[in-house]
Design a protein that fits this description.
heterodimer; A: alpha+beta; Arc Repressor Mutant, subunit A; B: mainly alpha
Chain lengths: 97, 195
């Protein structure tokens, strides 16, 4: 019987996966852009960003732009590695040998 | 999007990943300004040099090319302001920007190396400008720009064989087909896509 690798629980959730997929393809992105692209509410997005940050998958930088607070998210090397592992596990799960 | 904790199927995970990848394709809107700005500036310079050297006794008509120096500052300023306003930067945007900065450095080095013999400068600069144009077309997946890059290489060979009398006329034609036509095609495409 084929034994599947367990899907990373940090990534295997809709919004966190969407967020990580987005950050995999950009240098960095700010909170408003991520919110617009994922269609998430600000509160929910904020919670998921904190979870990814605590897991060490993303870096979060808070700064001011024209007197407005700005939150910039960037994927970490560890986050990138975990995402690749997740996609690989997902492929095994969808196409078992 | 639902809360982060909803259980997903494998297919759903793949769909989310693919949706997000499609949303982060390179932003080609900024490219229009640079293509049209440099297209018209270099078209004006090349055609002016040709007309002045053919119909007037001006000694150093190629000095008109120094108009490109403030042009570089305008381009940098525009890119800087737009970059500050943009809330995302893709890897492709970054590669696109560095390809053109590398071109500017190479062009300056070429200018220094060839400063003793400016008469045969045109084929080299046309050959050189073909590369970032071609690569920009590949990065943005916009084929008219790829064709524009190839056109620069073809015109580089043509200007080599045409000699210094008509090389600026050939350079004008190269800019028309390498920058201006793809630039306006890109503008039409983006205006159409955003409807």
């Amino acid at each position: 019987m084929t034994r599947f690798k367990e899907l990373d629980p940090v990534l295997h959730s809709q919004l966190r996966l969407a967020l990580m997929s987005l950050l995999m393809n950009v240098e960095s992105a700010d909170f408003t852009y991520i919110r617009d692209q994922t269609g998430a509410t600000a509160g929910n997005l904020s919670v998921q960003i904190t979870k990814l940050k605590e897991a060490g998958y993303i870096d979060v930088v808070k700064k001011f732009s024209k007197n407005f607070p700005q939150t910039i998210c960037k994927i970490t090397p560890a986050g990138r590695e975990k995402f690749i592992e997740y996609v690989s596990a997902l492929q095994d799960y969808l196409n078992p040998e | 999007m639902e809360t982060g904790e909803k259980v997903m199927s494998g297919e759903e995970s793949l769909r989310i990943i693919s949706d997000m990848i499609n949303k982060t394709r390179v932003n080609i809107r900024q490219g229009i300004f640079h293509l049209l700005f440099w297209g018209w500036l270099t078209f004006f310079c090349a055609l002016s040099v040709y007309l002045l050297s053919r119909f007037t006794g001006m000694e150093r008509p190629w000095m008109i090319w120094f108009l490109t120096v403030p042009g570089i500052f305008v381009s940098f300023l525009y890119g800087y302001i737009k970059g500050k306003k943009s809330n995302v930067q893709t890897y492709a945007d970054k590669v696109y920007m560095w390809v053109w900065i590398a071109f500017i450095f190479t062009a300056v080095v070429l200018f220094v190396l060839k400063s003793e013999n400016m008469e045969s400068f045109t084929p080299y600069i046309l050959m050189l400008v073909g590369m970032p144009t071609f690569l920009s077309g590949i990065i943005t997946r916009f084929n008219p720009l790829v064709a524009g890059g190839i056109a620069f290489w073809v015109f580089a060979i043509a200007s080599h064989f045409a000699g210094s009398g008509t090389d600026m006329l050939i350079a004008s034609a190269a800019v028309l087909s390498g920058y201006l036509i793809p630039g306006y095609m890109l503008k039409i495409k983006i205006d159409h896509d955003s409807l």
